[in-house]
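Per-record layout

source: Quillaja saponaria
name: Sulfhydryl oxidase
length: 511
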Amino acid sequence: MSGINLVHILCLLVFSYTVASDSLLGSRRSILRVIDNESNRGVHGDYAVDLNATNFDAVLRDTPATFAVVEFFAHWCPACRNYKPHYEKVARLFNGPDAVHPGIILMTRVDCASKINSKLCDKFSVGHYPMLFWGPPSKFVAGGWEPKQEKSDIHVIDNGRTADQLLNWINKQMGSSYGLDDEKFENEHLSSNVSDPGQVARAVYDIEEATSTALDIILEHKMIKPDTRASLIKFLQLLVVHHPSRRCRKGTAELLVSFDDLYPSKIWSFSNLEGDDGKGALMNFQICGKDVPRGYWMFCRGSKNDTRGFSCGLWVLMHSLSVRIEDGESQLTFTAICDFVHNFFICEECRQHFYEMCSSVSSPFNKARDFSLWLWSAHNKVNERLIKEEASLGTGDPKFPKMIWPPKQLCSSCYLAHDQRSNKIDWNQDEVYKFLTTYYGKTLVSLYKDKDDLGSDKSASALEDLVASTNAFAVPVGAALAIAIASCAFGALACYWRSQQKSRKPRRTWS
């Protein structure tokens, strides 16, 4: 296939991609309005999220929270006005980036006195104000409640008339011990049950957080230079095809289309393109959407301040990439990840250690399995180093100490033999690879798949298939050709994309 034909095909793919993404905007707008309202919470003192008939399903479908509380009220009701401070005391614990226990419960409210919500309130048989419901967020989507229902995943909260009573009711449901006086980020309530493989399903939100944070760090520290530009493009190509989050794939593709305009390859100094904050022309790109970063972690959340978080999210991202690639992409993925860490990870000791492990690889990877196992082994070598350092300095997380992965609780078949005295492990690598592909592949994205089943439109899955088809420029053509395509073809794509945009009707921006 000639280079010109390849560019034409890529042009058509990106143009089709942008058209397909338009249909997703409607459902996202309502979510983003809610998020914008949350960002202004400090001014109004409200933590609970206001929902209405237009955004109810979308917000509850998209939340990472395990449970939701929905308060149905009327703004003219004196009892509702008096109850609001109690409800807000509890909502403070769970809602927003400054929440004490984020990502666990979404606290919401619906004003039944608003005409737009009449049918919504009828669906839940609201008979008095305020009326509170509890359940998994997905069960509220396109759902309802009837007083005589024998079995329902949605429950009426019958004893929540004060903040203390409401929190006590929640604690009984969850077996937790949250308190109204809990302070942020000393997370003694966190579960550290590593034997539960389902926990990693929540990590898709942390991967989005880590991806967005990584780009912010790169921009803040002005790390895009002539000698690092190609390695960033190569890593972004990998994310476009294999990032486990659909919206991160979408955002990365949009960034790559404009990359040559933002950071031209022929300009040897980018300082004139950057603002005082270092973000410059890229500051308007939210690589995983406007609601990311959220400011908190879920799967990667530590029980102490300054533990886990970003480094954990980045590792999970790399493992998830390693189990999603095809054999022909293994060497390109290896060089993309090694170069990315070497050029853009600012922890010097960690960066140097990872670079040494990359440099010790003497032959190219021909199989995705081999690269995935190498990355797993490299991660365990990092953990071995940190286990010793944290033990001597007392800097580890007491609930999440560094360990050799996976533990026997998660994969007993991975162990052929384990010498407890020397801590030497004889691994069954076939079983290890099977575990990695399940844990960081199928289990990791299961939460998104469940949400897709709740009624996201067909264009979303079509968009995912379209993005996956961009394998054409990210696979076994070799690193040199991949970089050439990134620097040249994406420039052509940007021109074509802009010309098509001019001939189309203006798109409304997200509010």
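summary: The radius of gyration is 24 Å. Residues 3-39 form the longest helix (37 residues).
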